[in-house]
Design goal:
SET binding factor 2; 1755 residues; five-stranded antiparallel β-sheet; alpha+beta
């Protein structure tokens, strides 16, 4: 029996201490006055009964009731029920202080009270019966307020002395003696929480999603805070949330109602569940790490810093749907036309239990099979049980799921294990559910009806638990009369006679003592174990576990032990591959175990090596979170297998498998130790049982022996625990001792095992490893002691630094520390005596010292073993001019994360890992070697890339796939989508690696461009300069000369100013790379000085004359497009509106522009610098292309200057505060004039073509959607129309009706199409106000910044060359590709280009002025030209396009590819690569429109970062001029010539059709309109293909065939005889060479024949032109041929159907056959004559006529 109430307390307002405005409460009386022995009086009651603070009130409030929960120091809960009412505050009414003890003054009437003070009646109990307490306190209040004739003393005494039966479903009727009758019902099971209706209420208040979030928050130990205006609601919500956690118990602070004075508790660091009143809402919103739930508003707020783990799928979805079915049963039928009559919700108490049943099922699924992961360490005197978390997570398939991991690591789960772990105890609903029902739950998940049925069954049980006897006698408790609290004449609550109460309590207790104690013995039973753990998802097992793979492993092991070396060599690579699968690893440990007798197995050296490699391969994948059983199974084998090194010196396997992080994982050792202890304890009790049964078993053939074998440790423990109380003291003592010594002996055994695996064979080497990289300990690098003892190792370095001989000592110390810490933890947990622990502590240093001594001999002897035969280093074939800098370092090339070459799941030859050497040349970093796999060993593997393309180089520690041990390695990534990941051989010293890295960095960032390979290569082999094509260039050259002469005569230009400069400044300075302030950062736009003091800055090369400028691609293209003339005065009859200005020939106007620019005729050269000032980097708007069909112009410029530095200068110069200029962004009126001049020129230009309005061509197919997406979500600031309207307006559709409200748009001017659209940044819009008169419109565009391009490229590289094969099957290549955001960026560029191209086609000009004008601007303008102008789709045209738009217009190739030291840290920004990818996308969609093929694009993509050519080396023509590489100096030697990529391409193109697209047959159509949706973009195979046979083909294809790296010559001399077998595999061979297309193979056939016939080979181009001309000359014609008879093979003649005019039925002509129907005749009329035909009959005549007619109409 237990007391119903421990204390009854009256608490009132304290008048003595009315502190600083805050009232206080004080305890007026308490009963009993002495504390009970078992329950001390709770502190702080006066705070909790008024959680909102003690305040006086102006009116009488209703009495209130709520329950506060207090937790004492032993974490026992006390439930304090508080009933608070208000009584008149006599002392403050202004009357005299003469009323005494509730007797009124006799004199007059009492004044109505004005101030009221709260008073609380509090009941403190350890039992949780809120409704009973409400009734008892209510009864006391009723007796007082209605002045009933009952003594309060007896009520209180009865209450304090009332005893209640213990749990178990019993009930008790009792009365306090005031005419009441009350019933207490105890729940059936103490362990199940009692909730009433609180859970249902919580879901009603917050909704399913929010409650689930709170549920996850509490389970993952986050802080949860409720607030509400009702205290009772707070209590209920906290109770509900806690009960949802069942079977877990909440063990952190739980304060359903927190008083005002204690609000600082909320900033405590521990998790909690707390409720506060909504009054404090404002105070709690500053809390950063607390999840706040507003019960009244129904919302929860999760701070950003909290990552809330959610339930694993599919459980989350199942739980949500189950809750939805229960809480919203109408949802299913809400859409039915004839819904069934409304399904009623279960009554709230039942609904509450149904919701709880859903959560019970959820926990049963979460913890399914948890008992199979319990490790029993001790049975007596108390069971000690450990939970194997990693095994549980691994087998559930939830290692990645952080939710379950957090739950298992939480305090609640630790409590769950200690409470529910023991195998013999009282069981409840959850035990049965988790053991027997999980299968049923799984089956029901797709059948809602069955699921609801199960939930209802469980709910019934939960309901019965709370209401065991629903039909018991009714309760009766008097209530106060209605409105009694408002009566005027209520006396204060009387003072109770304490002595009387004490007396009555004693009497009642004496009575109860005589009554028999109705204690209930808990019924214990064996806990059902249930099935073992199964995976939460029914995952399809991977290929890895196929029986075939296990067979491979078995065979390999048997070959090793049978000493069949050759077979072993063949099967080993396959066996090592198979060991990636878990089943194969398990199989390996089982198989090896069979070869061990008496715990030892001796091997010869070869066998030992093989076994070690297999062990290492197995251990490499025993990650810390997988179940540790594989490593645990290998543990005894490591000290079983050994080899003899010398007499008396044996080397055990453990010395060779120490490099794995698993050995330094404390958790692994604990788990393995506990498993071993469990086995020992099991065998201890099994043998004991056998001894007991021995006499009876003699005659029975020991049959029951199997039963014992089957018994698990848990079964035995249950049996033992059941017998324990019946055993004698001495027997008990004996059992405890046995167990303790079992654990102790295991601890000694494990200390030895740990010493074996932690003390390294070579102590000096590990010392070196650890000191060199202390930062790597945490990452589990080579050091033998990671994470756990990193700190302690560091300490010992500090203390003992400087002593050479302290090496061994140091290692010994760290190992001793690690083992001691382990021993302390496990021995304390498993109850080993202190003496034993001390003796272990003394023993460990000795074991370590002895072991180190033994290992010295082993290490010495193992060094004497003959080295393993290593493959010969193959020297690479070098390109002309290439030299080796670093001789080959022996390495092992690891796969780069692509599976093609690994022979993995994709099959194929296992080319990687390959053994060979790493070379560094002046141009490339290069690996050459042979595959490790014996079966493809005779192939050569080459992986190389240009040094200049390296984007990242990092030191790594990696698994050597061949020796299966950890080694130092290097991982180098290249922008050409290659990755070299190598492990250095032991023979390569760290110093050599450092030298290698230094050289690599030196060549990666050369001092000057003349140190790059582009120039180095040119020195050794002078390039043959082919004569220029005569027809084209001569005309340009003569033309330019005449222009120059004319210009000189006109005196318009100063030519030869450079010569003067040259004399002044002397020699040209080469090392100009480090000039400060030149490579500015992208984000800062600083204007170049407008007028450069030319004499000092420009160090011009001698011949930079106009002649040479005129020969540049820019000028040639201007001429082709007819974009005006170079001289100012036009001598032609037709007026020109644009002219070519040479004002930038000295690059003084704009450094990053070409020397010649196209500007409006009307603008003087002198005003250009002032215009340029308004644009970033002085990049003013200039014309770069003209659409020959519509006459529209494409212009480009840098973005406008905002109010940057320049803006400030301007605003100082302008006196008026608000300039009247319509272009507010700049006070430069020149800019406005320039824009006006542009507009005039553009408009007139278009009028000449008759194209000024859209009436001529209404077909602007710019769908409004394209505009909308292009301009995203912004709006034009100048006008309130949205972009869709602009699109419509652009499309010439008059929508004035739809936005009639806007007076702005009713302006007639704006109804027509603008002559010029300016595509600019959104940010420039506010600076750009256009007057109505200006016929131009600003289109704000969103584009990706360089930052985003860089980030996207990094992710793209990670997707294409992930460096490791992803373990998570979810992380597929396509997913990674999608995450990289690369395609959305291409989409945005192409979309912009298509829109601009369409606008140009439809009669408006466009100015593109985005960012600095050299990244996205170049991408868009060049793509527009490519789409609109077929010329640029030829080889010559594309070259011109790149030279003009990218090279001359100053795209910063060096900076974007970070080729110089200055931009070393800025990262790689592949702007040009994006452009090439866009071209590739267009090429894919229009394969017949391009003269060049996709290989040409790949060639450019590879070489624009390779530094092989000088073309892409610098950032602008100005810099190229400075370095003397802008013009090809004919006179000088080749010393500084460098190679030009275009010349090289021309040569290659002449030699073979390598860049030619055979499908090229351009149609003269309008601009191409590729589909730009992300879905129609294809991945470019440039990113993922490679050629491992020779390295990238882009270098070899340049050489003439005799230079090709011939495999045979190379290998024959060096590597002995090789077979002639070829490996044809996509990642190995160049596919286009191995499987050429039909044309290529025909060309090569012809070449071979010419060779045989000793003819001079004909140029392929001439041959191709002849063939195509022949094809063109023979157009497809239909003939009607006639023969003498059906058997004839040659026809008598033919009628060309192209000449036939008509075919009609006709009558027979002369000489027609007789007896033929008239309808069988028809006439065929050609332009020359009429033929009469006779068919067999009328029907066939009709068929003939139909056929002929259809041919005629086709033609």
């Amino acid at each position: 029996m237990a007391r119903l109430a421990d204390y009854f307390i009256v608490v009132g307002y304290d008048h003595e201490k009315p502190g600083s405005g805050e009232g206080l409460g004080k305890i007026i009386q308490r009963f009993p006055q002495k504390d009970w022995d078992d329950t001390p009086f709770p502190q702080g009651i006066e705070l909790f009964c008024q959680p909102g603070g003690w305040q006086l009130s102006r009116e009488r409030k209703q009495p209130t009731f709520f329950v506060v929960v207090l937790t004492d120091i032993d974490s026992d809960r006390h439930y304090c029920s508080c009933l608070t009412f208000y009584e008149a505050e006599i002392n403050l009414q202004g009357t005299k202080k003469e009323e005494i003890e509730g007797e009124a003054e006799v004199s007059g009437l009492i004044q109505p009270a004005e101030v009221f003070a709260p008073k609380s009646l509090v009941l403190v109990s350890r039992l949780d019966y809120p409704e009973i307490f409400r009734a008892c306190l209510g009864l006391i209040y009723t007796v007082y307020v209605d002045s009933l004739n009952v003594s309060l003393e007896s009520l209180i005494a009865n209450l304090c002395a009332c005893l209640v039966p213990a749990a178990g479903g019993s009930q008790k009727l009792f009365s306090l003696g005031a005419g009441d009758r009350q019933l207490i019902q105890t729940p059936l099971h103490d362990s199940l929480p009692v909730t009433g209706t609180s859970v249902a209420l919580l879901f009603q208040q917050l909704g399913i999603q929010n409650v689930l979030s709170l549920f996850c928050a509490v389970l993952t130990e986050n802080k949860v805070l409720f607030h509400s205006a009702s205290f009772q609601r707070l209590s209920d919500a906290c109770r509900a949330l806690e009960s949802l956690m069942f079977p877990l118990k909440y063990s952190y602070p739980y304060i359903p109602i927190l008083p005002a004075q204690l609000l600082e508790v909320l900033s405590s660091p521990t998790p909690f569940i707390i409720g506060v009143h909504s009054v404090f809402k404002t105070d709690i919103h500053e809390l950063l790490d607390v999840i706040i739930a507003d019960l009244d508003g129904g919302t929860i707020k999760i701070p950003e810093c909290i990552h809330l783990s959610s339930l694993p799928e599919p459980l989350l979805h199942q739980t949500q749907s189950a809750l939805s079915l229960i809480l919203h049963p109408d949802l299913e039928v809400a859409d039915h036309a004839f819904p069934p009559p409304r399904t009623a919700l279960s009554h709230s108490k039942m609904l509450d239990k149904e919701v709880r049943a859903v959560f019970l099922r959820l926990f049963a699924q979460l913890f399914q099979g948890y008992r199979s992961c319990l490790q029993l360490i001790r049975i007596h005197a108390e069971p000690v049980i450990h939970f194997h978390k990693t095994a549980f997570l691994g087998q559930r398939g939830l290692i990645e799921n952080d939710f379950l991991t957090k739950v298992l690591n939480g305090m609640a789960f630790a409590g769950f294990v200690s409470e529910r772990g023991p195998p013999y105890r009282s069981c409840d609903l959850f035990d049965e559910l988790v053991a027997f029902e999980v299968e049923r739950i799984k089956v029901e998940e797709n059948n809602p009806m069955k699921m609801i049925k199960h939930v209802r069954e469980l709910a019934e049980q939960l309901f019965k638990n709370e209401n065991p006897n629903p039909h018991m006698a009714f309760q009766k408790v008097p209530r106060p009369t209605e409105g009694s609290h408002l009566r005027v004449h209520i006396l204060p609550f009387p003072k109770i006679n304490e002595a009387r109460v004490q007396e009555l309590i004693q009497e009642n207790l004496a009575k109860n003592q005589n009554a028999p104690p109705a204690t209930r013995v808990e019924k214990k039973c064996v806990v059902p174990a249930g099935p073992p753990v199964v995976s939460i998802m029914d995952k399809v097992t991977t290929v890895f576990n196929s029986a075939q793979r296990l067979e491979v492993v078995r065979n390999c092991i048997s070959f090793i032990f049978e000493n069949k070396i050759l077979e072993t060599e063949k099967t080993l690579p396959a066996a090592l591959r198979a060991l990636k699968g878990k089943a194969a690893r398990q199989c390996l440990t089982d198989e090896l175990g069979l070869h061990v007798q008496q715990n030892r197995a001796i091997l010869d050296h070869q066998q030992f090596d093989y076994i070690i490699r297999m062990m290492n391969c197995t251990l490499q994948d025993c990650s810390s979170l997988e179940e540790y059983n594989i490593a645990a199974a290998l543990l005894p084998l490591t000290s079983a297998f050994y080899r003899k090194l010398a007499p008396g010196v044996s080397q055990f396997a453990y010395t060779c498998v120490q490099d794995h992080p698993i050995w330094t994982n404390q958790q692994f050792w604990e788990t393995t130790f506990y498993n071993a202890v469990q086995e020992q304890v099991r065998s201890l009790y099994l043998s004991a049982k056998e001894d007991n049964h021995a006499p009876h078993l003699k005659q029975k053939d020991k049959l029951p022996d199997d039963q014992y074998q089957e018994k698990t440790a848990m079964d035995l423990a249950a049996e033992q625990l059941r017998l324990w109380p019946t055993l004698s003291k001495s027997t008990q003592q004996e059992l405890v001792q046995h167990e303790e010594s079992t654990v102790f002996s295991q601890a000694i055994h494990f200390a030895n095992l740990m010493v074996n695996l932690l003390v390294p064979l070579d102590t000096s080497k590990n010392k070196l490893l650890r000191t060199s990289a202390p930062g790597d300990w945490e990452s589990g690098s080579n050091s033998i002691v990671t994470n756990s003892i990193a700190g302690s190792v560091a300490e010992s370095y500090d203390t003992e630094s400087g002593f050479e001989d302290s090496e061994n000592n140091d290692i010994a110390n760290s190992v001793v520390r690690f083992i001691t810490r382990f021993i302390d933890k496990v021995c304390t947990e498993s109850g080993v005596t202190q003496d034993h622990i001390k003796s272990l502590h003394c023993m460990i240093p000795g074991i370590v010292a002895m072991h180190i001594e033994t290992l010295e001999a082993v290490h010495r002897e193992s060094r004497r073993l003959p080295p393993i035969q290593k493959p010969k280093i193959l020297r690479p074939a070098l390109l002309p001019g290439e030299e080796i800098i670093c001789e080959g370092l022996r390495v092992l090339l690891d796969p780069d994360g692509r599976e093609e070459a690994t022979g993995g799941l994709l099959g194929g030859p296992q080319l990687l890992p390959a053994e060979g050497a790493l070379f560094l040349t002046t141009y490339r970093i290069l690996f050459r070697g042979t595959p490790h796999d014996q079966l493809v060993g005779e192939q050569t593997v080459v992986r190389s890339f240009p040094i200049a393309s390296i984007t990242k180089e990092k030191k790594i520690t990696m698994q050597n796939q061949v020796q299966q041990n950890m080694q130092e390695g290097l991982q180098i990534t290249s922008a050409s989508f290659q990755l070299i990941k190598v492990a250095f051989d032991e023979e390569v010293s760290p110093e050599v690696v450092e030298i290698f890295k230094k050289q690599l960095m030196k060549f990666r960032y050369p001092q000057s461009i003349f140190n790059t390979f582009a120039f180095a290569a040119g020195q050794t082999t002078p390039q043959i300069i082919l004569p220029k094509q005569k027809e084209k260039n001569t005309s340009f050259r003569t033309f330019s000369k005449t222009i120059v002469k004319g210009a000189k005569r006109a005196g318009k230009m100063t030519i030869g100013r450079q010569y003067l400069l040259k004399k002044k400044t002397g020699t040209i300075v080469e090392e100009r790379v480090n000039r400060p302030g030149w490579n500015e950062d992208d984000d800062v736009s600083v204007s170049d000085e407008s007028e450069l003091p030319t004499s000092t800055t420009l160090k011009a090369s001698e011949k930079s004359t106009m002649e040479q400028l005129v020969e540049k691609a820019c000028f040639r293209d201007y001429q082709r497009l007819g974009l005006g003339t170079i001289s100012g005065s036009s001598s032609r009859s037709r007026p020109e509106y644009f002219r070519i200005t040479a004002s930038n020939r000295m690059y003084s106007l704009c450094r990053s522009y070409p020397g010649l620019l196209v500007v409006p005729q009307a603008v003087q050269d002198s005003s250009l610098p002032r215009v340029a000032r308004c644009y970033r980097h002085n990049r003013l708007p200039v014309v770069c292309w003209k659409n020959s069909r519509s006459g529209t112009l494409l212009l480009r410029s840098g973005g406008f200057h905002g109010k940057g530095v320049v803006g400030l200068f301007k605003s100082q110069n302008s006196p008026q505060a608000a300039p009247t200029s319509s272009l507010e962004s700049s006070s430069s009126i020149e800019q406005e004039k320039y824009l006006q001049a542009l507009l005039n020129a553009v408009s007139v230009h278009q009028k000449l073509r008759g194209n000024n309005t859209l009436t001529v061509r209404p077909a602007l197919v710019l769908s409004p959607g394209v505009w909308a997406s292009l301009r995203s979500s912004t709006r034009l600031i100048s006008s309130p129309t949205s972009f869709i309207d602009v699109g419509a307006r652009l499309a010439g559709k008059d929508h004035s009706a739809s936005f009639s409200n806007s007076t702005y748009l009713q302006n007639q001017l704006l109804k027509r199409q603008a002559a010029l659209y300016i595509f600019g940044e959104k940010s420039q819009l506010r600076n750009f106000k256009v007057e109505f008169a200006l016929n131009c419109e600003f289109v704000p565009v969103e584009f990706h910044e360089i930052r985003q391009v860089k980030a996207s490229f990094k992710k793209l590289m990670r997707a294409c060359i992930p460096s490791t094969i992803p373990t998570d099957s979810e992380v597929t290549f396509l997913k990674a590709l999608g995450d990289s955001e690369w395609f959305p960026q291409l989409h945005r560029i192409m979309q912009l280009a298509v829109v601009v191209s369409e606008v140009l086609e439809n009669g408006s000009s466009v100015l593109v002025c985005l960012e600095e004008g050299w990244d996205i601007t170049a991408q868009v303008t060049s793509l527009v030209q490519l789409l609109s102008d077929p010329f640029y789709r030829t080889l010559e045209g594309f070259r011109m396009l790149v030279e003009k738009e990218w090279l001359s217009f100053g795209h910063k190739f060096s900076q974007r590819s970070s080729l110089t030291l200055n931009c070393q840290g800025s990262g790689f920004a592949p702007v040009f690569l994006q452009f090439l990818d866009c071209v590739h996308q267009v090429h894919n969609q229009y394969p017949t429109e391009f003269e060049f093929n996709l290989y040409y694009l790949k060639f450019l993509a590879f070489h624009y970062v390779s530094n092989r050519f000088k073309t892409f080396l610098l950032d602008s023509d100005y810099e190229r001029l400075e370095h003397g590489t802008l013009f090809d100096d004919k006179g000088e030697k080749h010393a500084k010539k460098g190679i030009c990529i275009w010349e090289c391409i021309d040569r290659m193109h002449k030699r073979s059709p390598i860049f030619f697209n055979y499908l090229y047959s351009p149609l003269e159509i309008e601009a191409l309109k590729p589909s730009v949706n992300v879905s129609s973009l294809k991945k470019w195979d440039y990113y993922i293909e490679e050629t491992l046979s020779t390295g990238p083909s882009y270098d070899w294809m340049m050489l003439t065939p005799k230079h090709f790296p011939s495999e045979d010559t190379d290998l024959a001399g060096e590597a002995g005889p090789r077979s002639q077998r070829r490996t044809v595999w996509p990642c190995y061979d160049n596919v286009s060479c191995t499987q050429p297309d039909a044309f290529t193979s025909l060309f090569s056939e012809i070449e071979k024949l010419e060779h045989k016939l000793n003819q001079v080979p004909e140029k392929w181009q001439q041959l191709w032109e002849r063939v195509t001309v022949d094809l063109k000359e023979e157009p497809r014609t239909d003939h009607l041929r006639y023969y003498d008879s059906g058997e004839d093979t040659s026809c008598k003649g033919h009628i060309d159907l192209a000449e036939v005019e008509m075919v009609i039925p006709a009558g027979p002509s002369m000489g027609a056959p007789k007896h033929t129907s008239d309808k069988a005749f028809f006439d065929l009329k050609t332009s020359k004559r009429v033929y009469n035909f006779c068919a067999q009959d009328g029907q066939s005549a009709q068929q003939w006529m139909d056929r002929i007619q259809s041919c005629i109409s086709d033609a």
